[in-house]
Every structure is written in structure tokens, then in C-alpha cells.
Amino acid sequence: MPGPDRVVLPESVEVVRSGRVVLPAGVRPAAVHVTDGRITAVTAPTEVPAGAAVTDLGDLVLMPGVVDTHVHVNEPGRTEWEGFATATRAAAAGGVTTIIDMPLNSIPPTTSLAALAAKRAAAAGRVAVDVGFWGGIIGADARRLADLAALHDAGVFGFKAFLAPSGVEEFPHVSLDALAAAARHTARLGALTVVHAESPSVLAGAPPAAGRAFASWLRSRPPAAERAAVASLAALCASTGAPLHVLHLAAAEALDDVVAAREEGLPLTAETCPHYLTFTAEEVPDGATVFKCAPPIRERPNLDRLWDGLAAGLFAGVVTDHSPATPALKSIDTGDFGTAWGGIASIQLGLPAVWTAARRRGHGLADVVEWMCSGPADLAGLGAPGLGVPGAGAAPAGSKGRIAVGADADLVVLDPDLSFVVEPALLRHRHPLTPYAGRTLDGVVLATYLRGHRADGDRPVRGRLLTR
Question: How far apart, in whole angstroms, are the C-alpha atoms of residue 293 and residue 343?
Fold first, then answer.
């Protein structure tokens, strides 16, 4: 098998072939033909036009670019935390070709047309991958509902709300009644509502986190908070008919309510994250605030149940919830879980982290592509979910998450059998803080192509700002 030292990966591809191409119908040898940034044919490896420029990957894996629908870029307003240039360079280095940016923690948050314009201005000409935007729900009065309609018309991919405090004052959480009113409105718009699902009343009854003990943080965010919130969302989904999506589900027991809702035909979905599938509470050292996130990383039996749910198809996707901050905000010097900002920076490492754990549990690359590429693309309306079914035809122009005729030529060359040790100095997000530091992961991204052109490395920015 050719390795990274024996294959030349060009700046752009016209035809790229491999013995292992991850297609909607499975992994098989194929040649992928690219014209003007789109996939125009997928053929047998030998079916190549005379004179075509061919990149032969041998047995390296060719897969679609990862679609990460849960990323906090934090620009404008908190660019010292992250920023479009650094976040998207890290994304490209990790095989991510599309991100959808969350409406916080930027200032202003993306809750109005003016705020969306400010965010697009900050991103324009500075992104290495394609970037879309979520809008935000912070109320349900007439003015706020008008803002949601304007944002929808401007092309946001849906709307985010918090049921518990967000951590920043400019993006307040909403009551269930306010969420219901907003969700009815977004449903009429044909938009998805995505929710940080922890019950504020359960959290209020838990002991506050303080000090260096991770157990203190874990006790402050009990699984019951997620279970109660998800049950409330299921009831809201039933009463309004609005499509709702549970963000970063960490407590596996809350999946029961998602499953029950789906069995009733309700449009309730959920996602989880690489850190919940990789780490366990038992292994988090005291004072290691790089592991702090909300909801928290939970115990080993919970991790196993999350993997069972993933294998059973209960999640719409696996996304990073990349949420970086400065070392000072992470309380790196004190290791105090009570004061540290909650958020894990991992956009460059999500693909290898999930692949590392997945292959050890008997899953293949087609599973990982479903969880991290086609699933999130479908959630955001960027995919073509019928592909792979006989008679489905070609993908719509601009589709993401699959190697299929008509889709954008967003491609990743991966050596799935090569391992590496995570060195923070090699990470491209603004502050190289990560709980993966020193961990050995499988799967090296050798090249990332955005519409057929290299997007990784120190290359010209090629990303576009997407609208729904």
C-alpha cells in the first residue's frame, strides 16, 4: 500500500482513483471524475478518459469531506478565542470541508440580520473551507420572531436555543413556553430548531462545581438534567409538530426519549460528539480543565451505551462542538473546574478520534462517513439522502457529504492504518489546548480537497459562505 512518502498529492484533481473509495453503496475500487469543482462521474478505476490527469492513490482511502454542523468560531467580538482563519485551517487539516457556525459566542450573536451581516463580513475571504451559519433564538416576542424570519430569508441553516444558561449574557436561555412559540414559527418557515438540552431546574438543584476535582464538575451536571430536557423536547415536538434536534447528547439514558419520540413518528433527532465517544470520567485527571464541557464527559458504562446507540442508528451524526477559549478562560493555571470555560477544541481531530474508537469496536469507514459526513449534511439540508438507493439518480448541485455524481468534489485522502501522537504544537486552531494531547490516534489525513482543489496546509483560502 502506498504511504504518504510514496504518493504525490497534487494541488487539484481531475480524476482521482483508489482501491478504497467510500461511496454511498459501500467501500470499493473506483475512479472519481471532477470537472469545475463537481463530481461528474464515478467509474471503475480503469475507466479514465484518454489524456486525463490521474491521481492514483493506490490503497489509500478516498472519502467525502467531513461536514461539521456544530462549530463555535467566536468571530467577531471574541476573535481572541478563535476566528474564521484559524478555525477553518484546522478544519481543513482534519478533513473537514464544511462547517456550520453557531450563533454564539460571537459579539453580536447571530440573532438579527445585522449580526449575520457582521459575521459574514468577518468571514469573507478568510475561510479555508465552506462555512454556513445557524441563527439564534433568544426570545419569542414579535420582534424576535420577525428577526427569525429575516434570518431564514437570508439563508441561515436553522436556529439554536438554550434551555439552560449559555454562559454568555448576550445569548440568554429561553423557557419551554418561549421555545414552543419560536419553534412553531420556525416550523412554519420550514427550519430546524437545535437545542442545548439541559434542564435548568435540575441543574439548580445540583451542587455547584468548585475546585480541581473533575468529580465536582460531573456532579454539577447530572444525567437527569439531560433526560428531563430531552423529555420536554419530545413533548414539545408532539404538541407543535416542529422538527427539533438535541445538540451534543452526552447522557445515554436520554436516548430513550429520542427513540420513543421517533417510534411515534415525531421529528426529534440527536447528535453526539467525539469526546463523549473517546474519553471517560474515570480517566480525567483533577485540574485538567481542557476536558471541561457541558454536558460533561461521563463514566465508562455511559460511553458504551452511546456507542450502542450509534451502532443502532439512533444519532443523526457525530460533530465536534469545537468550542475553544483562551488559556486564561480555561483556568489552565489553577485547574479550577468551577471557573474554567466549558468547551473542547477538537475540529482537527474529530475524524481520527472517531475512527480510532470505531475500528476497535468493529465498525468500518463507511460507518464513520455516515456519522460524520452524510448524516450531518442531511441534517443541515446539504445532502442528498436518497443516494445509494437504486434509481435515486444524481446528487443536487452543491451537495455535501457523499461521493456522488453532482455533488461538490469535497474529498479527503486518508491513511486509516497510520497512527500518530497528538502534538498540540501541530494543531491549527488559535490556542493549542486539547484533551487529546499525547493520545495516539489512528487515521492520518494526507490531503483535503474542496471542490477539487487542495484546502489543507498554507494555501490560498478557497472556502465559500453558504446559504441554505
Answer: 4
